[in-house]
Amino acid sequence: MGEVIVVTSGKGGVGKTTTTANLGTGLAQLGYKVSLVDADIGLRNLDVVLGLENRIVYDITDVTGGHCRMRQALIKDKRYDGLFLLPAAQTKDKSAVNPDQMKVLCEDLRQEFDFVIIDCPAGIEQGFRNAIAGADRAIVVTTPEVSAVRDADRIVGLLEAAELRDPKLIVNRVRYKMVKAGDMMSIDDIIDILAIDLLGVVPEDEMVVITTNRGEPVVSDDRCRSGAAYRNIVRRITGEQVPLLSLDEGGFMGKIRRMIGFK
Amino acid sequence: MDSKRTPNGPVSDEIEGDENTILIRRTLRSGQKFYYNGNVIIMGDVNPGAQVAATGNIIVMGQMRGVVHAGAEGDEAAMVMAFRLLPTQLRIANHITRPPDDEVPSSTVPEIARIKNGVVTIESYPTGLDRVFR
Ligand SMILES: Nc1ncnc2c1ncn2[C@@H]1O[C@H](COP(=O)(O)OP(=O)(O)O)[C@@H](O)[C@H]1O
Ligand SMILES: [Mg+2]
Fold this sequence. Notes:
By secondary structure, chain A is α/β, with parallel strands linked by helices. Chain A has helices spanning about 15-30, 45-50, 60-65, 70-75, 100-110, 125-135, 145-160, 175-180, 185-195, 205-215, 225-235, and strands at about 5-10, 35-40, 75, 85, 115-120, 135-140, 170-175, 195-205.
């Protein structure tokens, strides 16, 4: 039976969809069977990031509404046999799906897949509640900005209230030079407030944008640091203990005492 | 002073505590609010964006970074104490204060805020250890 993981953040544009696509692709590269669920109803874009937009026939609301079978709606990835996407609907009606339907959907998917990864919409309303309803675990993504960290903290509180304990943190778009110069929040500053376990740190990298536009997540690219960061996060999710990327500038994460695996 | 019975039976006199105190064993996160009629002790942090208010005193055994209001119904003798007192805004009774705009907030020792001579004053909280190791 597979594990259902929701990727959330509160604030929009911090990298939830990028993270979902990269973790899914990375896990599939290691041979796991993975299904990605785009729960961002009305603003679907996980299909675009994966380069699968032109294959969509059915979407998540067709499955929950009983208009098609799960198998018909799941889109197989171009490159990896074990990777599938359940696309979001483009409808404006965000209440097209409810939490009970999401629970059923997650139960169905976990029978067949090793990992089910849900891309959560921004915000704390219905779409968020749907996305977390069937999840076993949560990943919270933030950027090193005060407002993003504030929203992440709000999300951690709401996850706790929904009995989703011990969420793991990914800090995205870190610029080491700025951190070193004291112009950007450090990982220490962020952990100091959120007090949750760190799953990984992804640097700001133009390759993320370039690969996203090509519809091929950066995790498959061995030459760049952001790809390496995502590969390390993937290994941590599978339970391996992987040290944080050693960064040339070094030493900026001095106070972090331990790195944790995901399980 | 009345004698009081401890749970084990023996009589304890001399010392009397404040009634009506609540212990919160978790961190208050952004968007969370807590109000209590009495004193509040928090074993955890109060994060930026969180609010805690009490008619009595508030003690935070951690970092106090949110909005805090002690003596919320007008008690000018109420105080706020925290291991790290870095509030967004601190209120005691009807006095409202905030840190100065041109200062990077820092706090390295436990501190206590209370009204002295009509103004909110923040001082380091003398622990016994300070005296021993001075
Ligand atoms: N590490 C990174 N470096 C550079 N750009 C990034 C990085 N992570 C995300 N981005 C860019 O930021 C934008 C928002 O990311 P996205 O994953 O869509 O956020 P969300 O799903 O949280 O709204 C996208 O254009 C994406 O390419
Ligand atoms: Mg998104």
